[in-house]
Amino acid sequence: MKNATALGVLAKSYMDKGMLVPDDVTIAMVEERLSRPDCAGGAIMDGFPRTLQQAAAFDALTAPYGGVGFVPMITISDEEAVVRISGRRSCRSCGAVYHLAYNPPREADRCDVDGGELYQRDDDKEDVVRNRLYVYYKQTAPLIGYYFAHRVLHEFDGARPIATIFAELQAALADVAPAV
Question: pTM of this prediction?
Answer without folding.
Answer: 0.74
